[in-house]
UniProtKB/TrEMBL annotation:
Keywords noted in UniProt: Cell membrane, Membrane, Transmembrane, Transmembrane helix, Transport
PROSITE patterns: ABC_TM1
Subcellular location: Cell membrane
SUPFAM superfamilies the UniProt entry points to: MetI-like (SSF161098)
The organism's place on the tree of life at top rank: Bacteria
Ranges where the ABC transmembrane type-1 domain occurs: 80-270
Membrane topology annotation: Multi-pass membrane protein
Spans traversing the lipid bilayer: 20-43, 82-105, 125-154, 198-224, 244-266
Protein name: Peptide/nickel transport system permease protein
Source organism per UniProt: Hoeflea halophila
Family assignment from sequence similarity: Belongs to the binding-protein-dependent transport system permease family.
One GO-annotated biological process of the protein: transmembrane transport
Tagged with keyword Amino-acid biosynthesis: no
Main location, first listed in the record: membrane
């Protein structure tokens, strides 16, 4: 009997991991809503219909309407697109800048460059992430682009520290020493030998940072510093609902549930990936 291929073995383990399956399904649901919103929504989420304001959920308006008569379900669909886009680009910025910095610092461990990079990371970490994002958007102005930059800046030291710490543990391994004896440069060793061996850690951390980025985007939108009208945003939907929660609780419940379910799904998927990528944890299941 032939042994199962690594891909099939991983897929079988993934399907047998409840947390990963639930997290993946929840994440996929909101990604699907975001993608569908590019081509279809039940109603125009920017069209005002004052005659229909504050309607409770019905067969016509599944999640009800807001104080301007806009369809809540359509707004949540477009809000998912905004939140996912902002989080995806922000985490991408953090990875594209932070991982090379961390790898370079590990390759030059103990040098002045290593010290400068890590102290720079400490400087960014000295400010709470949300406060730092608010400061940046307050200076450069509100909007989705500035929110992406603000959230991305905080993600840089997160990935830099993770990449440096993981890489340092590999630089003393035999396969790295063999590559150095073969005459490979530090940059080539980092790209060909170090990065592939820490990719699993980066992927898991990426899912966690993705969920945090969605929360940060919602928080910025809540205080008016995220995506601007008429573009719907989950955080601004909550801000609009805070003075009307006794009259129309659905205005706060549905965007709040959207944030909770999306973040929960990403965290469950991240925990599942951590277990699946760790051979010790996989054997213990």
């Amino acid at each position: 009997m032939t042994a199962a291929s690594p891909d099939r073995s991983f897929l079988r383990a993934a399907l047998g991991h409840p947390a990963f399956v639930i997290g993946f399904a929840l994440s996929l649901l909101f990604i699907a809503l975001a993608l569908v919103s590019f081509v279809w929504t039940p109603f125009d989420p920017t069209k005002l219909a004052i005659a229909n304001k504050l309607k409770t959920p019905t067969f016509e308006h599944w999640f009800g309407t807001d104080h301007f008569g806009r369809d809540m379900f359509s707004m949540i669909m477009v809000g998912a697109r905004v939140s996912i886009a902002v989080a995806f680009v922000a985490v991408g910025i953090g990875m594209l800048i932070g991982v090379p910095l961390g790898l370079y610092a590990a390759a030059r461990r103990g040098s002045l460059v290593d010290e400068v990079i890590m102290r720079g990371n400490d400087l960014v970490f000295a400010f709470p992430s949300l406060l730092l994002a608010i400061m940046i958007t307050a200076v450069f102005g509100p909007g989705a682009v500035n929110a992406i930059i603000a959230i991305g800046i905080f993600n840089v030291p997160v990935f830099a520290r993770l990449a440096r710490g993981a890489a340092l543990s590999l630089w003393t391994r035999d396969f790295v020493l063999a590559a150095r004896v073969a005459g490979k440069t530090r940059a080539r060793i980092s790209a060909e030998h170090i990065l592939p061996n820490i990719a699993n850690l980066l992927i898991v951390q990426g899912t966690i940072q993705f969920s945090l980025a969605i929360l940060a985007e919602a928080a910025l939108a809540y205080v008016g510093l995220g995506a601007q009208p008429p573009l719907p945003s989950w955080g601004r939907m909550l801000a609009d609902a805070q003075t009307l929660i006794s009259l129309a609780p659905h205005m706060a419940l549905f965007p709040g549930f959207a944030i909770i379910i999306t973040v929960l799904g990403l965290n469950l998927m991240g925990d599942g990936l951590r277990d699946l990528f760790d051979p010790k944890l996989r054997r213990g299941r």
